[in-house]
Amino acid sequence: MGILDVKGVGKRFGGLQALGDVNLSVAENSVHAIIGPNGAGKSTLLNCLVGKLIPDTGSVMFDGQSVLGRKPYEINQMGISRVFQTPEIFGDLTVMENMLIPCFAKRDGAFTPNAFAAMRKDGEMFDRASHMLEEMNMADKRHMHAASLSRGDKRRLEIGMCLSQEPRLLLLDEPTAGMARADTNNTIDLLKQIKDDRDITIAIIEHDMHVVFSLAERITVLAQGTPLVEDTPDKIKGHPKVREAYLGESQDAA
Amino acid sequence: MFGLEAKDFRLLLLVTLLTMAAPFILNPFPVDSGMAQFNAGYPDLMQRFVIFGIFAIGFNILFGLTGYLSFGHAAFLGVGSYAAMWMMKLLTMNVIPGIVVSVIVAGIFSLAVGWISLRRSGIYFSILTLAFAQMSYSLAYSVLTPITGGETGLQPKVTDPRILDAALTGNAPKANLFGLEMGSSTELAMGGWVFTFNVGYYVAAVVMIFAFYMSIRIFRSPFGMMLRAVKSNQQRLNYTGLNAKPYTLAAFVISGMYAGLAGGLMVAMDTQVGAERMFWTASGEVVLMSILGGVGTLIGPVLGAGAIKYMENILSKINKDILYEWFAFMPDGLQDFVITLVYPFIGKGWHLTLGLIFMAVVIFLPGGLVEGGQRVAALFKRKKPSDNTPDGKTTPAE
Ligand SMILES: Nc1ncnc2c1ncn2[C@@H]1O[C@H](COP(=O)(O)OP(=O)(O)OP(=O)(O)O)[C@@H](O)[C@H]1O
Ligand SMILES: [Mg+2]
After folding, report:
1. Does the CB of B247 have a partner CB in chain A at under 8 Å?
2. Is A50 within 8 Å of A138 (Cβ atoms)?
3. Is A92 on the interface with B (CB under 8 A)?
4. The CATH homologous superfamily of the domain defined by A1-79+167-254
5. C-alpha to C-alpha distance for A77 and A124, rounded to whole angstroms
6. B14-36 pLDDT per residue, tens
7. How many alpha carbons lie under 13 Å from residue B305 in its C-beta half-sphere?
8. What pLDDT score does A248 carry?
9. CATH no. for residue B273?
10. Count of structural domains within chain B
11. Do B225 and A118 touch (CB under 8 A)?
């Protein structure tokens, strides 16, 4: 039993079977990578975990509780945070406000009608948000509009926002997509540090094999909606089926 | 002070001073000067300034913060008016119960309308609110006639029960605050100037200052930040463990209560109500006020309300004779030519002027009059306007 158990999950879009029969178990406090060619169904699988999609078949259990049928905000409150393939942040708000929102969500829950509370007096929240901005190396950008950040900074901010909720499971959908090499390496270091500093389980979708092999303790290879193999990075590297189905292809693409 | 940051407290203080001194500020021209018609310091218009200011402040909490554009807020204003009127008919001509009940009834009504309309977002939400408002308007005219008075509307009558008031000995019922009549005014003549201080105006002004204070508190609360987050990125909000629905619904109800308050005050000032108050053009007007003044800014909606009501009441009164007086110094041919050019923009044509100003604002000043003010201030400070945008105010550029 892992912290996340996916059993027999299938999802069909019209005539397209995006997910076949996905079984996946993510062990607590591990880094589990999901790799696979474009269109393999990786994002679809993630969508099924966070309540964005409801799978047609199968079950998804998080820490012994089913997430199916729950709203995204309820699943998040259970302890699953997600970083999206394209950064999703509050562009019109300042970086500080972006960081404050998840802090409030963590402490006060899904809805609090505190319309007359003076936010600036909430030292606890400001401390927590400032602390997280420092950890993300973004303290100097706190007054900037989030929309005006660079792509790399937006990603860092989004990761920081998810972390400030102290999730038990962090889902990352291609966190280094479109990043320059230096930014990618920074992100690897950041994720390693996150892993070292706290009890957290990370499931990461990634095309960049350098990232995958630097971080993952276990790897699941997904192809055409079905898991091909699941094993440790070393075994995956040498696996003939994987080389054939995925690794060769991805090196051409990259 | 009062739980506000120094900057916000200064703004509140400024608004308080300006509203209190409005009878002076709005009457800058001596009574018998040619410019006297531009004076706006008469009770009727001043009351409208602050009442529509309240309406727009509340609307801005929904539209400015969450981005949900309601086209039906006049319905809440109308419902508030009817509720206040019934309090005057049944309980007392004292305005307090009417104003309180108008807020409560509008709150309940907006909860029902919001509950349903917020199942959709974007244009579908707007259409749903519009449909509700037009439905209310039609019902008020037809089947609800026993409650609304239909086409004739409602006024307090001598024969109304008014169980809290002593019997009126044949006098027409007058709205009052513990005996102080809303309609009573004191005039102060100074040199060529005459200033009018009206009880009703000051009652409404105090309510508006309080409403403005509440709106600052909401803007600066965690709740207000969540509302801006709804506007900015609902997807991120949902995946951050926050339930957008109760936030938007709460904003909807708060803005509905503000509208009800404005409606109640209208009845307190001018004791009559008709269904036309709920017509869709009235809902559209508050949208214009917010955009003209500056969506999502604190003071913008008040400025927008003032600007539109000023034009509606002052510009519309200028007629051809007045134009002939103004341009009398010109040779005849030129005078006729200029008047022909200007005439479409005044009198009944004031809507044309409003439309042009509105378009100019939307195109050149997307932040409304507030952005205009900031740009002017920036010119003096020789700073870029973008550096000057106060933290926490959303610029509605997108
Ligand atoms: N909402 C949807 N409606 C219809 N088809 C969809 C939907 N979402 C995904 N698909 C399809 O399902 C398949 C799997 O898509 P998915 O986004 O999960 O792939 P992926 O593995 O994340 O690919 P990538 O590496 O490009 O991100 C694709 O063929 C995609 O077109
Ligand atoms: Mg994907």
Report:
1. yes
2. no
3. yes
4. P-loop containing nucleotide triphosphate hydrolases (3.40.50.300)
5. 20
6. 999 999 999 999 999 998 887 88
7. 26
8. 54
9. 1.10.3470
10. 1
11. no
